[in-house]
């Protein structure tokens, strides 16, 4: 069998690929390792917990409404650290650049990286650059890795029954924005990516109450992330459709194309499982952050094993992890 | 001449009054001996001069029984004097359980006889009628294993139960006003309405226009008079959908043009909803805006009493559930979920153990296989393996094969939500439990995202059964015939071998090896399922032209929407490919301005059919091509022709009729050619589109005109209610 594009599309097919490439015996440095497939690893060193994560970024187009590949590359790593509860400290950056790439574009990308770093007080401290011939690569690839420190790591598997599920803002913005820009769809209102570094938002959320689990709904969107959180915790989740924050423009654009905004990527959102008593306080803390103004409590952790959405018309449906392209199923 | 023997009668012999029937015959022929029930067989030890006559008499069975075999072995030892009925025992379980049937004429007479023991009692029944499947918890069928167990019989009932001369001898559902289940009339919030006679009070409320939930045999209905139809539809949020009615026979005859066969169905024990052509296609538009109307006759004592008190001859009777969700069977749920929809609830305290929707029949074809017909048991030899077919996703049911019989469950619904998935699971457990299934093989649809597929995988993991995926339309054909055939499947959507969406397919071969030899032209579905909901999208998918764009613009599509649609199709962004017949009818319906949004199953296509009913079809030129070595009928040119004629001012109803007719001709031509090329003598037809009278008859005529045998299955739905059965047939034929 050969790798195909579905293997990178997130969801269940990608899960198969992940099983192959994470098949390592040496996968844990003493804390949380590769085996848990969390947002990052945790390595206890001299009583301190170091969080460590890495991410490679390929975006087409590299500049899009609301951001660019540089901002995504920094935010991706910072957010993965933040999802473990880690304060981001230092990042590395590896760039693979195709021959013929505009230097001016590189300058824009780097400036954008710097701005994102500045927002959360982290630094890019080491790097590597390769230039490949045109025939071998047709787009820039930016890899970042980062370390942070955390006192008590937050996992993505810690949902407990009764926990309230909070999302930090509108869902689907990044995925729909990229898609619209790439394919040239004009939806009337311009849709902007939500790409942003979330550390300070997460920091204030953690200060406001007890958070049992966190995950950022990137590839595969909310649908993928909430299913993974439910599966890893061994519980079910009930989501109220009407409480899900969706931008009108995103809802309408997705509606016109027949795609589910819950299944497309976000780059500046976090899903939190919060102790019920603390949910309101955490929600308040998130809402008072500029990136969290549209945050909402969207659901509850229950016994069971599925993610079920109570729909606006009084029905229920499963929210399933997307498996690549949706296939029509209505008779 | 034998004068004694052990008679073993196998089949559905339980819950159908078999032992009392045998007892009565034994009495009549002066036999001595015993009779006992072992689940799916009755064993009779009999001895007497007229043994042979007795044997012939008992081998005929009772009205509700199904006899598979009668076997006689020599009798060892002397039977006791007299004839006695012995206790039921579990025994073998191949015979299965009888279905719920309409109250019989004799019981109606009992209910209406003044001064009789059963006068006015709503739950009157006997060995020949009443609920069965809906109240049973386990077999053998005896009162203690039904939801009648909580109603101990009074002494007059006890006397009838034990009196061999009585029609209620061993009638497990025997009950009277003194000992049986009771009715109550409630406000929508569940608080009681003070009423001495709940039925009379409910009838008065209905007559005055109230909307009343009525607990029936297999679930709740929502009832109201015709004048309240709009109110009900608004409350349900289903303003377009036709609703079924229950009417007196006189009223049914006034509304609809009913053939002799249709009368037989209306009055049959199964008492389905029969979809009938209205005498005046425009009448009763608040109930149905189509040329058809679904009518059923009263089928329980409660219904008869309700109609006796009601001054209106007709009630709208729609099942109480969200579309695609299981019907509500429990009072608590009814109060919780129906409070915004109904004003009152007429309920009773007999628990509904197994949900069972009303069955629906049209032109003699089952649209919904449920109350009265299901669980449906078909003798078929599929070998030694025990096989489960979990069905597709929409309009699903399940079928279990074991030891020579396939058993298909009542309608389950759209397995797209947790409640219906749970119901599917429960149905598998219940019916599997009752017949003692232990699966060797589990068959599911090829669609990777169906919840039924996921359930099949999970169940296979637990049971260790092997899994088999069967393509949707092959299951359709397998459900139609096991002989070698050319199979025409005209349908909505089904996942195809090549990952595209099939639904207008011609196969050739023999179960389970059907080659796809021809199909409808592949069209685009912009936005996937979105194109099913908004048929104008499908129209553009089939005809992505400036003309279509202009037509949509004239219908109120904004420039933004049109530009997005155009780009989506040009870039193939989230666009599926389909050869579905249903989608072509949808697109034609959209083209002709008959339906812009589908608000219920099949809406665009049935609206097209209703328009076509008033029009006259003409034969158009048909265009065929080929793709990957398979013949293809061009639906694009069919719709272009329709568009051209519409521009030329031809009547919409005539174009509608012609689209159907020429689509049918195109499909039939491919089927006939495939049969002739391969020397296959028969053509089988299945798929939801085959319910369309004009299309079905046009295909039949073409097939017969070509001198080929035409095969269609009246025993199973043409739509997806046959899929689980077809899956099992494929599963029993596939070697692995
Ligand atoms: Fe089908
Ligand atoms: Mg985390
Ligand atoms: Zn009766
Ligand atoms: Zn009684």
Automatic annotation (TrEMBL), chain A:
Pfam families in UniProt: AIRS, AIRS_C
Gene3D superfamilies associated with the record: PurM-like C-terminal domain (3.90.650.10), PurM-like, N-terminal domain (3.30.1330.10)
Biological process, per Gene Ontology: protein maturation
Domain of life: Archaea
Coiled-coil features, chain-numbered ranges: none
PurM-like C-terminal domain mapped to chain residues: 161-308
All copies of domain PurM-like N-terminal, residue ranges: 38-150
NCBIfam families linked: hypE
Stated family: Belongs to the HypE family.
Descriptive protein name: Hydrogenase expression protein
Organism of origin: Methanoculleus taiwanensis
Upper lineage: Archaea, Methanobacteriati, Methanobacteriota, Stenosarchaea group, Methanomicrobia
UniProtKB/TrEMBL annotation, chain B:
Keywords, sorted A to Z: Hydrolase, Ligase, Metal-binding, Zinc, Zinc-finger
Residue stretches making up the YrdC-like domain: 196-372
EC class (word): ligase
Molecular function, one GO term: zinc ion binding
InterPro entries cross-referenced by the UniProt entry: Acylphosphatase-like_dom (IPR001792), Acylphosphatase-like_dom_sf (IPR036046), Acylphosphatase_CS (IPR017968), ATPase_NBD (IPR043129), Carbamoyltrans_HypF-like (IPR051060), Carbamoyltransferase_HypF (IPR004421), DHBP_synth_RibB-like_a/b_dom (IPR017945), HypF_C (IPR041440)
Catalytic activities: an acyl phosphate + H2O = a carboxylate + phosphate + H(+); C-terminal L-cysteinyl-[HypE protein] + carbamoyl phosphate + ATP + H2O = C-terminal S-carboxamide-L-cysteinyl-[HypE protein] + AMP + phosphate + diphosphate + H(+)
Chain ranges of the Acylphosphatase-like domain: 4-87
Active site: 19, 37
Documented EC number(s): 6.2.-.-
Any Pfam family matching the protein: Sua5_yciO_yrdC
Pathway, per record: Protein modification; [NiFe] hydrogenase maturation
Membrane-spanning intervals of the chain: none
GO terms, biological process: protein maturation
Annotated family: Belongs to the carbamoyltransferase HypF family.
Protein known as: Carbamoyltransferase
């Amino acid at each position: 069998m050969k790798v195909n594009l579905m293997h990178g599309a997130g969801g269940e097919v990608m899960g198969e690929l992940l099983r192959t490439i994470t098949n390592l015996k040496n996968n844990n440095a003493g804390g949380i390792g590769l085996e848990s497939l969390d947002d990052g690893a945790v390595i206890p060193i001299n009583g301190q917990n170091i969080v460590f994560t890495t991410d490679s970024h390929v975006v087409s187009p590299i500049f899009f409404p609301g951001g660019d590949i540089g901002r995504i590359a920094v935010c991706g790593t910072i957010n993965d650290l933040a999802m473990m509860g880690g304060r981001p400290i230092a990042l590395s950056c590896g760039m693979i650049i195709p021959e013929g790439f505009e230097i001016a574009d590189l300058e824009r990308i780097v400036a954008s990286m710097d701005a994102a770093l500045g927002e959360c007080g982290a630094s890019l401290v080491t790097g590597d650059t390769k230039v490949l011939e045109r025939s071998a690569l047709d787009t820039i690839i930016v890899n970042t890795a980062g370390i942070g420190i955390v006192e008590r790591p937050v996992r993505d598997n810690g949902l407990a029954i009764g926990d309230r599920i909070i999302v930090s803002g509108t869902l689907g913005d990044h995925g729909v924005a990229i898609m619209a820009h790439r394919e040239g769809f004009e939806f009337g209102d311009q849709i902007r990516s939500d790409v942003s570094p979330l550390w300070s938002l997460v920091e204030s959320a953690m200060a406001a109450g007890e958070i049992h689990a966190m995950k950022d709904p990137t590839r595969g969107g909310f649908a993928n992330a909430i299913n993974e959180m439910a599966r890893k915790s061994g519980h079910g989740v009930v989501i109220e459709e009407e409480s899900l924050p969706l931008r009108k423009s995103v809802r309408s654009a997705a509606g016109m194309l027949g795609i589910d905004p819950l299944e497309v990527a976000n780059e500046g959102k976090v899903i939190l499982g919060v102790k019920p008593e603390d949910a309101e306080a955490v929600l308040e803390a998130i809402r008072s952050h500029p990136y969290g103004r549209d945050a909402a409590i969207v659901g509850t952790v229950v016994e069971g094993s599925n993610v079920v959405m109570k729909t606006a018309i009084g029905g229920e449906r499963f929210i399933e992890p997307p498996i690549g392209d949706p296939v029509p199923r209505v008779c | 001449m034998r004068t004694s023997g052990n008679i073993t009668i196998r089949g559905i012999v339980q819950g159908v009054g078999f032992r009392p029937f045998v007892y009565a015959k034994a009495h009549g022929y002066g036999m001595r001996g015993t009779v006992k029930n072992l689940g799916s067989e009755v064993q009779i030890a009999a001895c007497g001069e007229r043994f042979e006559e007795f044997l012939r008499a008992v081998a005929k069975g009772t009205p509700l029984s199904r006899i598979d075999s009668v076997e006689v072995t020599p009798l060892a030892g002397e039977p006791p004097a007299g004839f006695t009925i012995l206790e039921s025992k579990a025994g073998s379980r191949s015979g299965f359980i009888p279905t719920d049937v309409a109250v019989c004429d004799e019981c109606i007479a009992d209910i209406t006889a003044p001064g009789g023991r059963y006068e006015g009692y709503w739950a009157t029944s006997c060995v020949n009628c009443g609920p069965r499947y809906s109240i049973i918890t386990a077999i053998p069928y005896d009162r203690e294993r039904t939801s009648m167990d909580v109603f101990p019989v009074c002494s007059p009932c006890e006397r009838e139960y034990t009196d061999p001369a009585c029609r209620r001898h061993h009638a497990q559902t025997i009950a009277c006003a003194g000992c049986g289940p009771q009715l109550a009339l409630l406000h929508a919030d569940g608080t009681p309405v003070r009423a001495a006679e709940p039925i009379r009070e409910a009838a008065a409320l209905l007559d005055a226009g109230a909307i009343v939930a009525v607990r029936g045999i297999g679930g709740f209905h929502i009832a109201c008079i015709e004048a309240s139809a709009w109110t009900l539809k608004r409350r349900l949020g289903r303003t377009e959908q036709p609703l079924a009615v229950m009417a007196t026979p006189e009223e049914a005859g006034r509304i609809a043009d009913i053939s002799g066969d249709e009368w037989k169905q209306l009055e049959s024990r199964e008492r389905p909803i029969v979809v009938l052509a209205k005498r005046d296609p425009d009448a009763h538009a608040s109930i149905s805006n189509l040329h058809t109307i679904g009518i059923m006759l009263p089928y329980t004592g409660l219904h008869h009493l309700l109609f006796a008190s009601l001054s209106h001859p007709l009630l709208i009777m729609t099942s109480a559930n969200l579309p695609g969700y299981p019907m509500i069977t429990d009072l608590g749920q009814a109060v919780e979920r129906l409070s915004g929809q109904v004003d009152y609830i007429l309920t009773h305290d007999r628990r509904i153990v197994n949900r069972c929707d009303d069955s629906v029949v049209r032109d003699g074809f089952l649209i919904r296989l449920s109350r009265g017909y299901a669980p449906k048991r078909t003798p078929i030899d599929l070998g030694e393996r025990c096989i489960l077919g979990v069905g597709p996703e929409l309009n699903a049911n399940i079928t279990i094969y074991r030891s020579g019989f396939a058993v298909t469950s009542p309608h389950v619904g759209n397995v797209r939500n947790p409640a219906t998935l749970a119901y599917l699971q429960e149905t598998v457990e219940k019916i599997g439990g009752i017949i003692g299934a232990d699966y060797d093989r589990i068959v599911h649809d090829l669609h990777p995202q169906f919840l039924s597929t996921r359930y099949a995988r999970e169940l296979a993991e637990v049971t260790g059964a092997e899994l088999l995926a069967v393509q949707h339309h092959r299951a359709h054909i397998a459900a139609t015939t096991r002989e070698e055939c050319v199979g025409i499947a005209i349908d909505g959507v089904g996942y195809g071998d090549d990952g595209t969406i099939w639904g207008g397919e011609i196969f050739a071969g023999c179960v389970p090896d059907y080659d796809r030899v021809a199909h409808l032209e592949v069209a685009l579905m912009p936005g996937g399922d979105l194109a099913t909901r908004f048929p104008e999208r499908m129209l553009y998918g089939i005809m992505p032209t400036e003309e279509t764009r202009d037509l949509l613009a004239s219908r109120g599509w904004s420039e933004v929407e049109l530009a997005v649609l155009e780009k989506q199709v040009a870039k193939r962004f989230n666009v599926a490919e389909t050869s579905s017949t249903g989608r072509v009818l949808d697109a034609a319906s959209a083209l002709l301005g008959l339906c812009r949004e589908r608000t219920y199953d099949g809406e665009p296509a049935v609206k097209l059919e209703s328009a076509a009913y008033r029009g006259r079809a003409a034969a158009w030129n048909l265009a065929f091509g080929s793709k990957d070595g398979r013949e293809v009928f061009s639906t694009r040119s069919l719709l272009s022709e329709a568009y051209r004629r519409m521009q030329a001012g031809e009547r919409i109803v005539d174009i509608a009729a012609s689209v159907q007719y020429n689509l049918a001709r195109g499909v039939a031509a491919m089927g006939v050619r495939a049969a002739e090329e391969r020397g296959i003598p028969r053509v089988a037809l299945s798929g939801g589109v085959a319910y369309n009278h004009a299309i079905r008859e046009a295909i039949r005529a073409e097939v017969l005109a070509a001198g080929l045998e035409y095969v269609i299955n009246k025993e199973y739905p043409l739509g997806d209610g046959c899929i689980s059965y077809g899956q099992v047939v494929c599963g029993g034929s596939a070697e692995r």
